[in-house]
Amino acid sequence: MPRFVFALALALLSLLAGAAPVAELASPDGRNHLRLDIDKDGRALWSVQRDGKPLIEPSRLGFLLTDARKLERGFELEAAATREFDETWEQPWGEQRFIRNHYRELSVGLREREGLRRRLELRLRAYDDGVALRYVFPEQAELKSVNIGEELTEFNVARPGTAWWDTAFEWNREEYLYLRTSINEVGLAQTPMTLRLDNGTHLAIHEAALVDYSGMNLARVEGRRFKADLTPGSAGQPKVHRMAPFATPWRMVQIADSASRLAESRLMLNLNEPNALGDVSWVKPLKFIGVWWEMHLGKSTWGSGPKHGATTANAMRYIDFAAKNGIGGVLVEGWNKGWDGNWWSDGGADFSFTEPYADFDLGRVAAYAKEKGVALVGHHETAANAANYERQLGPALDLYVRLGVPAVKTGYVSDAAQAQVYGAEGVERRGWHEGQDMVRHHLKVVLEAAKRHITVDTHEPVKDTGLRRTYPNWVSREGARGQEYNAWGEPGNPPEHEANLVFTRLLCSPMDFTPGILSMKTQIPQGVPTTWAKQLALYVVIYSPLQMAADLPEVYEKNPVPFDFIRRVPMDWAETRVLGGEVGEFATIARKDRASEDWYLGAIGDAKAHQLDVVLDFLRPGQRYRAHIYKDGPKADYKTHREDMVVQTREVDAKTRLRLHLAPGGGQAIWFEKL
User: Fold this and answer.
1) DSSP 8-state code for residue 71
2) Residues contacting residue 166 through CB under 8 Å, at least 6 positions apart
3) Number of C-alpha atoms within 13 angstroms, CB side, residue 18?
């Protein structure tokens, strides 16, 4: 259908439905269209089309307020303006060094026709890889204090299809296996939620720039219509309390013709503000080992006693191994007082972030690490007692400055809704991990760390919404089921888990997944359901600038061939290409080292075997490379022969075509060394 005919038909349908068109916005390439209408009751509706076909049908916008009449109907257009923006910006670290930020924006002012005549602004953006909208509460006498009981933003998905989603408001926060259902069978979902429509179009619904606001979930209302469901406020408080003027986070829909293109989108980063920290040359990607996996295997404990893992001698053993093998850092969990007893259930009130256990000489270990050229990675487990952590935050970070600790891994282990946090007025309450108070807490930690040139890796975190662009010292986080579930989880992570993550959780990347496990036997009968080759491939597929070689030193010493790849693989990239993939089935990703002309490729699969053809046209034309190939052997299988791996080398160039064989639960890793 010609575009002008489609536009006329859409306008007629809007009039028949009692809606008056306000404005329409097209992406720079003309494929994505955002439309804003006002219906006969004065409700603002937004909708999205791609190539003239509906993706998001007219969907309501607005708010329920706890202390005033709702902001949802009776609006009229007050003003509208459009602009186009185009820049290319540089990430100080990341999966892509240079990112183009090209969009068209529509700003719309709405005012109530009657009553208080309150005002609300909408900002809508159309990109080639998606669309986004946010609300702006302007300064006005009629609405100075905004207490939000619920946000009424809807996403009315136009076509049937398949959804991959993680359940919301359950006790284990984000750490559930992704569900695959039809769109109209989704329950209450966290974001990002990924959809594949019946025409092949892929969508991901998420949010960007979550600051001083409550995290958004998605509640399916009926059919394929979803509504924003904000995380509750602490102890019965409004879900959001703000003083105008302020803007909400962006509500975003990534759009792509394939799963591969969806995974290449940088929409979320582009919706965040530029670096606010100034010179961040002190933020350095780091590979580390640590006193961690041995505790998940039950060989040692976080708490004190005869099996205590964080002893001076054990930490120095890890430091020696790191120095010998060119590993930049060592993490020591369980070093500080407070791990004894039921810290996860009593709120971690006994945690001290400055006092070590008696068998851990913190000063001696730090000095030894410095002498060996190895950095200590700090660790602060809070048991989600953010209030206790904030009381000690300054001295704890100052201690790390004195010791030369450049990075800290924080943790918030507790059941959902059991976080202990200060509200805006300074009162301590219980709340949700993604409620407004905890969102505010996480940014406070990041900013205090930035003042001291310390990077932050958050576990049991608030979701990633791209704030690493604004605050580049927020380098990584967990936010999904990690590798530790393969040590003791019942069940562990199934073989398709990582191929799900690539197109769901990792759309907002990075993730501290802790790959590199070569000891396949753990505390659960099935062990680690991958092959060695897949464990190597995860270093390329799952991006994190703070990357762990998670297994035990003695395991790596016994297996120098796979460990050589783990030692070499970079953590910072100049380019990323997603060469192929399907959600939950397989993913093939190539990345170019930022510090050299070398490329790395990782391919991972699910429980089935895969044969994948890859053209190496991402390599520099005319240049020869030596491909160091780590692939599943002929008997490899995630159930039986996990260690069966073949290592080969061959010369290749940009015209070479490779056939990748992935065993069930397997993968393949390749280092392309420039000749």
Assistant:
1) B
2) 174, 176, 178, 179, 189, 190, 193, 480, 504, 505
3) 6
- CA 603/CA 595 separation, integer angstroms: 22
Secondary structure percentages of the chain, helix, strand, coil, to 5: 20, 35, 45
Q: How much is the pLDDT for 19?
A: 59
Q: Tell me which residue of 616, 626, 617, 609 sits closest to 661, measured CA to CA.
A: 609
Query: Which fold is adopted by the domain 286-479?
Result: TIM Barrel (3.20.20)
- Give dist(CA 264, CA 502) in Å, integer: 10
Report whether pLDDT(8) > 70.
no
- Kindly report whether the global pTM for this prediction surpasses the value 0.85: yes
- Alpha-carbon span 246 to 146, nearest angstrom: 10
Q: Residue 223, class by beta-carbon neighbours within 10 Å (0-12 exposed, 13-18 middle, 19+ buried)?
A: exposed
Q: Residue 286: enclosing H or E segment and its boundaries?
A: strand 286-291
pLDDT digits (tens, 9 = 90+) for 32-91: 999 999 999 999 999 999 999 999 999 999 999 999 999 999 999 999 999 999 999 999
Report the distance separating Cα 347 and Cα 490, nearest Å: 25
Helix (H, G, I), strand (E, B) or coil at 13: helix
Catalytic residues: 484
For 272, list phi and psi in degrees, rounded to 5.
Answer: -95, 160
For 402, the enclosing helix (H) or strand (E) is: helix 386-403
The H helix count followed by the E strand count for the chain is 14, 38
Burial class for 576, CB neighbours closer than 10 Å (0-12, 13-18, 19+): buried
Residues of each domain in the chain carrying CATH 2.70.98.10: 3-270
Average pLDDT, the chain: 95
Question: Closest Cα partner for 48 from 127, 151, 165, 110?
Answer: 127
| Residue intervals in the chain for CATH 3.20.20.70 | 286-479
- Distance (Å) of CA 214 to CA 415, 430, 504: 18, 15, 20
Calpha distance 493→444 (Å, rounded): 33
Q: What confidence category does residue 181 fall into, taking pLDDT thresholds of 50, 70 and 90?
A: very high
CATH topology classification for 3-270: Beta-galactosidase; Chain A, domain 5 (2.70.98)
- The candidate with the shortest Cα–Cα distance to 212, out of 174, 173, 175, 238, is 238
